[in-house]
Design a protein that fits this description.
By secondary structure, the chain is an alpha+beta fold. It has 13 helices and nine strands.
Length: about 400
């Protein structure tokens, strides 16, 4: 007896789910929020760069977002005196220009009073109170002619509306570097930042390897102490550390304000984060590689220099970015341990001095500020591919 073949033609359809749709929209929103933050933080940098390339006249009348658009400005200048006149064919002339040579400007209209700017248009003529007529061309060149000799001792004022073309140059950078000491402070910042970045990396790399792969008593306590020091504000330790440093300088007979002091201070403040970050990354490296190296007779130093350091480059680069940016932008520690002398003033200190003495010269301040951020930008962009990998060190096993 054969059992009947029962063919099941029905198919089971899964219940519709919108999980993929939710994931898709979540991804879009996440990328959109990230793009918004990137644009939000890029605008100030772009504005600073554009402002640093504009001249003072442009900065005072319009914002950086209008840098590519021509603008108009009401201005006033004094014309020539009677001593500047020249006699030609029985007439007396005073010639000149309302603009400096090379200025990308043009005249729209002009007048003898501030409320009479539309008295004459560019290329037209206007009767002068001191006698004669003046003709001003669009490029600012004027000719003042009179049948009688001029006798005025002070040049009359001429009010005009100027059409200013967009203009960019590097004059602000040349001025701030040559005459305001930015160049010297730029070198001082490099002198402080480079050793203060390399020294803690070297020390922290050895300490991180020991805490990650060497067995010794008290290792857990040391790791806990490192984590605890991460939450200690550096402001709390500035005064005790400065007293200790001054006492050592007094005993040894050395100077109290030296580069060595600020290098050691930045090293001490940066070591907890460096050790924590590198230890987490090194602890996540494959154990099989370490055991194979030990079986082959490699010492800890050999394993550290030939295997661990090359594999830990993302974490090293990540901390290098953090430390470099922190030291480069630091003002407090530089002021405490290095002082404010003219020869040792760092870039942030120099910008503070410019803000106090040249607060109205926006073209100088913007150029100096962009000089201070260009180096951190180069460092970050050159090491950015290792940044996220270093931040995630030890977070995923």
């Amino acid at each position: 007896m054969t059992s009947p073949n029962i063919e099941n033609t029905s198919t089971i359809k899964p219940a519709p789910s919108n999980i993929f749709l939710r994931l898709k929209w979540g991804k879009i929103l996440a990328h959109g929020a990230l793009l918004f933050l990137v644009i939000l933080w890029t605008f100030p940098t772009a504005g600073l760069l554009v402002s640093s390339l504009r001249d003072k006249d442009q900065l005072t009348i319009s914002g950086w977002w209008t840098a590519l658009v021509a603008s108009e400005r009401n201005e006033v200048v004094r014309l020539g005196k009677a001593s500047d006149q020249i006699e030609e064919n029985g007439k007396f002339y005073i010639r000149g220009s309302l603009f400096k040579e090379g200025a990308k400007r043009s005249i729209i209209s002009f007048g003898l009073k501030s409320n009479e700017l539309q008295s004459a248009m560019a290329g037209g003529s206007l009767s002068m109170k001191a006698g004669g007529q003046i003709t001003i061309l669009e490029n600012g060149v004027f000719t003042w002619v009179s049948d009688e000799a001029f006798t005025h001792t002070r040049g009359p004022r001429m009010f005009f509306v100027a059409h200013i073309q967009p203009q960019f140059s590097l004059e602000n950078y040349f001025e701030v570097i040559e005459s305001n000491g930015i160049g010297r402070s730029f070198i001082n910042s490099f002198t402080v930042t480079i050793p203060a970045t390399i020294i803690p990396i070297l020390i922290a790399a050895f300490a991180a390897y020991a805490l990650a792969w060497m067995n010794f008593s008290g290792r857990g306590i040391l790791v806990a102490l490192v984590v605890g020091m991460l939450v200690v504000p550096l402001q709390m330790s500035l005064i005790p550390l400065l007293r200790l440093y001054n006492n050592i300088a007094t005993i040894t007979g050395g100077e109290s304000k030296t580069y060595l002091g600020i290098w050691l201070a930045h090293t001490a403040f940066g070591l907890p984060l460096a050790i924590y970050l590198l230890r987490n990354y090194m602890a996540g490296l494959p154990r099989e590689i370490m055991e194979s190296a030990r079986v082959d007779g490699a010492s800890h130093f050999k394993i550290f220099t030939t295997m661990v350091l090359p594999l830990s480059f993302p974490a090293l680069a990540s901390f290098a970015i953090f430390q470099f940016l922190w030291v480069w932008n630091d003002l407090l520690i530089a002021t405490v341990f290095l002082g404010n002398s003219e020869g040792s003033l760092v870039l942030t200190g120099r910008l503070r001095e410019l803000l106090g003495s040249r607060g109205d010269n926006w073209e100088i301040l913007t150029a100096g500020a962009f000089i201070s951020i260009i180096v951190p930008l180069i460092v970050f962009l050159s090491l950015q591919r290792y940044f996220v990998r270093g931040l995630l060190a030890g977070s995923v096993k």
